Amino acid sequence: MKLLSTIVFAVGMCASVDAFAKTVTVGFISSLSGPISSLGIPYANGAIAGHKAIGKSADADIKLIRLDDASDPATAARNARKLINEDQVDVLMGTSGVPGTMAIAAVANESKVPFIAISPVANVSPATAQWMVSVAQPTELMINAVVDHMKAHGVKTVSYIGFSDAWGDLAYDALKKHAAQVGIELLNDERYSRTDASVTGQILKIRAKKPDAILAGTSGTPAALPYLELKKLGYKGKVYGTHGLINSDFIRVVGKAGDDILAPTGPVTVAEQLPDTNPVKKVALAYREAFQAAFPKGSPDVFSAWSYDAWLLLVSATAEAQKHAEPGTPTYRQAVMDAIFNTHELAGTHGVYNYKRGSPFGTDERARVVVRLLGGKWKLENE
């Protein structure tokens, strides 16, 4: 009986310890279906790779809950509310497009839950910026890189074609602003929907203007349309894109029509081509190993790398917050947000992160390079 009592006591102690084990709960929203699933699936894979590589924050386990927003901003907002109200998440992460990201940001701000965005953000009010940051580079930072490349290579006129949505507006606004600053004339602003099957009319209008260069403000597989049409019509000028092109599905769809596209991207895209002194190189190569461990048959990509960076930021901030509060409480959520805003020189795959209150962005010029697509591979451009 004494032995049995000891066993029962020991089991009871284990159960008690398990009952009070700390868990950080993370809600991750991504577009696993719908028009932007070619981005959403890699985003989700990056979070999975991060979770498998680093499954604890200090002495707390990390629980990852993943939901599909079906490429719909309204669904993204509903998912955010579900994760907050039903799952009591400590942190939100997501999603695959600007509209969905901003929908989640509104819910996070209202509920006072930290939100780490993995895609570019736009028109963030000071109030919203109190509860969100983005690991994605500011659109202006990236577009400025290709505009500077245009200027350095003698481009005097440029035409634009982009999505008829928030991402298309972001890219266009950045191009318009910096082109004017460096003396490049902007000739066209043509748009199309992500679901359109043809852009022949728009490209004919652009070709009639005879621009020195064309920038497409697009992303994912729908981004291939303008480049395919430009190739078909024999355009000979310089062709640029955004960092939304750095995607294996885009390369597959665009095929040979993609040769010589120039685009900005985070250093992770060409990690092995970086000098050893680059602070991103070691982390980027470690991410590739983590991704391959999680997905032996998959290929690391720029979108999953953003999620991996978000995971590194999450682990750092939630560990720091545990010094001040217990997970699962409003106090802890505030402590996590405080820790995020105090992040200093955190090396990721895309850049080195430094955050401060009032701005959702944490990267600088170390977070961008210009690459050229050749034979289905991105090559570091010698600017």
UniProtKB/TrEMBL annotation:
Residues 23-346 form the Leucine-binding protein domain. It comes from Advenella incenata. Pfam families: Peripla_BP_6. Belongs to the leucine-binding protein family. Residues 1-21 form the signal peptide. PANTHER family: BLR7848 PROTEIN (PTHR30483:SF38), LEUCINE-SPECIFIC-BINDING PROTEIN (PTHR30483). Keywords: Signal. The keyword Signal applies. Coiled coil: none annotated. It comes from the Bacteria. This is Branched-chain amino acid transport system substrate-binding protein.
